[in-house]
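FAQ
Q: What does a multi-component entry look like?
A: The components come first, one per line:
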Amino acid sequence: QKEVEQNSGPLSVPEGAIASLNCTYSDRGSQSFFWYRQYSGKSPELIMFIYSNGDKEDGRFTAQLNKASQYVSLLIRDSQPSDSATYLCAVNLNAGNNRKLIWGLGTSLAVNP
Amino acid sequence: GAVVSQHPSWVICKSGTSVKIECRSLDFQATTMFWYRQFPKKSLMLMATSNEGSKATYEQGVEKDKFLINHASLTLSTLTVTSAHPEDSSFYICSARRGWTRSYNEQFFGPGTRLTVL
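Then the predicted structure of the entire assembly, as C-alpha cells:
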C-alpha cells in the first residue's frame, strides 16, 4: 500500500511567521511531488511541484525534497491570514500506464492576525 | 493557462434520478482526467481515471455501473451518477492532467460540483 502521510494539525502560526508543513511518502520510486491548497468548500489549487532533491522557491513558498529520507516539505514565509487553508501533499505514483497521484489527508493551517 | 471548468456547480435531485457532471479543460488538451469525491472535512478520494478514447479505470470499491464515465474528447469528460441515492450526496471534483513528460502528473482541478440527493 503506497502511502503519503501528513500531520493533520491544526498548525497555528502568527501572522508574519514561517509555516512549515511536512509530508512523508512510502514509495521510493516516486518521481514528482505536489503541494495543493484547499480552502473550505472549494477545490484544490496547485501551489507548486518539485521533482529534484533540494529546494524550489516560488514567491513566499519554498518546497523542499529529500528523496533519501522520503520527505517533502512546504515552507510559507511571511504567513498571511489568507494562507489559512488545508494543504494537501500529493505524490506521483507510476503504476504502469495508470499514473495517478497518491494524496495525503492534508494539514490544516491557521494563520492568526 | 490550465483552466478546468465543471458544470453544474451544484445540483439537487430526487432519489432514483441520474445526474450528469461535465468537466472541461478550457485551454489545454487533457488525455487524462480524474474524478474525485470528497465528503465534508475528509480528504480527496479518487474514484476513477478517465482516458480519452478508452474505458475509465475505477478505484477499488467504486461501482462502474453506478458512476459512468465518458471521456469523449481531449477536452471533455463526463461523470453520470445513475439512480442517485442520498448517500451519493457529496462534493465531486474533476481534474485534468497537463503532463509533458512521463515523470510529471500535474493536475488542475475544476471548481467542483456539490450534489445533494433528496
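Q: Is there any commentary attached?
A: Sometimes. For this entry: The two ends of chain A are 40 Å apart (CA to CA).
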